[in-house]
Amino acid sequence: MVGLYFTRVKLGSPPKEYFVQIDTGSDILWVACSPCTGCPSSSGLNIQLEFFNPDSSSTSSRIPCSDDRCTAALQTGEAVCQTSNSASSPCGYTFTYGDGSGTSGYYVSDTMYFDTVMGNEQTANSSASIVFGCSNSQSGDLTKTDRAVDGIFGFGQHQLSVVSQLNSLGVSPKVFSHCLKGSDNGGGILVLGEIVEPGLVYTPLVPSQPHYNLNLESIVVNGQKLAIDSSLFTTSNTQGTIVDSGTTLAYLADGAYDPFVNAITAAVSPSVRSLVSKGNQCFVTSSSVDSSFPTVTLYFMGGVAMTVKPENYLLQQASIDNNVLWCIGWQRNQGQQITILGDLVLKDKIFVYDLANMRMGWTDYDCSTSVNVTTSSGKNQFVNTGQFDVNGGSRRRGAPPYGGLVPTVLVAVALVFGASSSRGR
């Protein structure tokens, strides 16, 4: 019910595990550090929260303002150094997310651990030294205990993202993939590498954007193209379509919202009763959603289609006798012409973020099954999401099946997700 996809990452010497939200809408990996203002000390997700302490890790070092990596981060706004600071002052950061929450702290360098699958189902311990954030202040939703995790794992494109760092170190290719399981208990897999599946279709990423922007061209409901001016979807500073695993639902550009909702309402089965609940368009039905509601298709540059099933735009709100109250889960992006495709749309699909070729691919998929991953040698190997559930016996009873950081076949880190959906950003 919280709506959060998260996994765990192992950092420091001796290594400790931290639970982090997966967020393709931001760049930096950060974890809560000790001491921390506003950081929750307990979580409603049935996980034990940890605080990273750089002084307790023998491999940790603080990044000073004079460090080249800090200088580069200053250019992209991901670092803060006051002009009055000395060169040895710590390289700091302050981030504000789309939901108004925020964090600030300083950068450290330390070891991240993972297992490399060697191709014959043998694993080898691996590690890399990476730069990540040490958060000593949090605000907004980040302070809430019901959905508290230890930090956020940003999977953006900038130089300080772990994806970019591991690629520059030669540890993984410049591509990552995820498959978010949509059932109540969530789960899924994320691979630093390329998931290969025959049904994958690709569309170009919009270049030189801070987020993963796609060129959305039209929306079709029940075979009918919506009467929306396509210029509404053109990417600019105030417009565009973003893919973001850190957003729970989906947000439709203000000008596209009413045509979308009206088309869904007009296309539902006659046995479905429409009503408005708390300002949202809702429906009451005793039938399955697939038989009662239309399929939506998003068309992107190159005529590439993304099928959006009813479960990808509806949320179940209540059950009354044999009837279910479903409401449209896509929200109006009030006064904004930006469309955000969050977990509600991304679930039950493979997504491949191919940064080397500046394109994104997807296909419908059962994310509880194994995936096929390309290795650095060009061979394919199946990786089963279930095989990562057993992780050294450290899982607490009653907790969802979190997985560890497990790279697959020389390429890549495969993360198995716990919980469901993710927090709006």
From TrEMBL:
Entry protein name: Peptidase A1 domain-containing protein
Keyword Ubl conjugation attached: no
Molecular-function GO term, any one: aspartic-type endopeptidase activity
Family membership: Belongs to the peptidase A1 family.
Entry's Gene Ontology BP terms: proteolysis
UniProt keyword Glycoprotein present: yes
Active site: 23, 244
